[in-house]
Amino acid sequence: MNKRLNKNLILLILIVVSILFLIRDVNALGVTPGRTTVDFKPNLQQTVEFTVLNSEHKDFRAVIFVEGDLAGYVTLYNYLIEFRADEGSKTFKYDFKLPATLEKPGINSADIIIRELPEQKGKDIFIGTSIAVVTQLYVKVPYPGKYAEVDLRISEANVNENVNFFIQVSNFGTEDINKISAIIEILGPTNELIATVETSEIAIKSKERAELTASWLADVNPGKYYAVAKVKYDGKSARAETVFNVGGLLLEIIDISVKDFKLGQVAKFDILVQNRANEILENVFAEMVIKENNVEIAKFKSANENIESLAEKELNAFWDTTGIKEGSYDATLILNYKDKSIKKELKTFVTLTSIETSFLGTGKAVAAGKGLRRETMIFLLVITLILINIGWFVYFKKRGKNLNIKENRKI
Amino acid sequence: MKNKKTKSNLNYFNKILIILLVLTLILYIIFINLNKIILTQPKDNSITTERYPEFKWNSKQSDYYKLIVDDSIDFKTPIINVITTEKNYKPDIKLDLTKYYWKVISENTASNVNSFTMNSVVAIELDNSLIKNVGNVRTKVTIEDRVNVIGAVILDINEFFETKKDQNLFKAEQDE
User: pTM, whole model, 2 decimals?
Assistant: First the structure.
């Protein structure tokens, strides 16, 4: 009897626990777009649409209201919205009318807030947790004069290889920047200055972006280093800094070659790499940058590949040589893996029928073109047919005329 | 009699000529149409919230296709500039929240230029005591009790945090 009672009790507990486990109290709310950004124009007037998402497909009500610097310039169409369980999304809108001037440069904003209302059961209102989502209105007011924002990115390398620095510069000022350049300081683990490199000098128009680049030969011990980019532009300055690694790279470039090439067509670079790590490397891809007189003229990359431990794999990257002339070009091969990258400098010699790469002192890959392509053949065939038809047409017309003349003469 | 025969010969040749010309024309139209590249996905002027959108196009088989995606219609600084042998491409970089223009070029022809806009989705899910970012952007969640703002947390896509008993309101806004 007791045993039976115990069994029933255990069963009851299991059922209760299962039910408790299955009950999920899930609330979800979404809005798209999360932000609408416009450049400031005096008295700008616009209507903006936004969609509220009911991804949990529940019955609910929500209020919409506005907060922020620009709240006074925003007019809502709806203040209370209702969703039924079968409604996955609904679109709403608001108007904004900007003043003639906005004093604060940079971002001025208004938050349009959609807040789920607590569930109402009969006359009672349940007070529990509630969620809200915001669709923002951003108005970008240009900074008076010259104003640049900078971001430093670094392509890491092995010991005795080149580390490349890229500084993205955005001109958010009302005026053009005539001269901008940067000095990059490389600091060691104890903050000692190890090296200094300089970028070239460029100009950037108002509201445009550009990139400053520099390279440094990492003839140092493997480890973590710190880079500080000090950017100077027309008497002003900006700064960006980040940590980077030297050494510890797991991929080796074994060979690079180009086959079946014809100038003006697409060149296929076969890049043979080896995974020296004791683990599979996922999403490895190669990127090539071709330069002429230090100016980038092409950039292309291979598909992503997984490379087994200690295995070799060929990565294929394609270069469209339309408009490229015969001659010598500088190239950089970048291998990307695990948020790291390896760079190798190459020299490429382009001829009418070959691309020769000079890689770590070795000349590689010379090949002849393929001959006529299928499409070219079809095109030539069509042209030939048209010419033949025109020929026939002219011939028979002439012959017809001659025959008519002869017949007329006989008559 | 001879005149009649000559005239019938002429008619016969004229007919052949017309048929050949029409056939050539048809062949030429087929050739032109076969070479066209039709961009299919993302649809022109569409809005997408997929940060890694798949690009798809239709055309006759080509040795390669060059896909160019840029946030400017002049295609001077493309964010995607790849050559592929497939008729689709899924980028491995997360696209920014802006309007993009894209086109595909093959050996002999190029597509039209299409555009699409990448929109953000700010969305949170409150699952019992867990708040999860189920949108497509990094999101700042402001936490309030019944009276005051008591904190905020930045959640990456699909990231979550555990709420406490005195936390009652969670407000999510885009943070990138």
Answer: 0.56
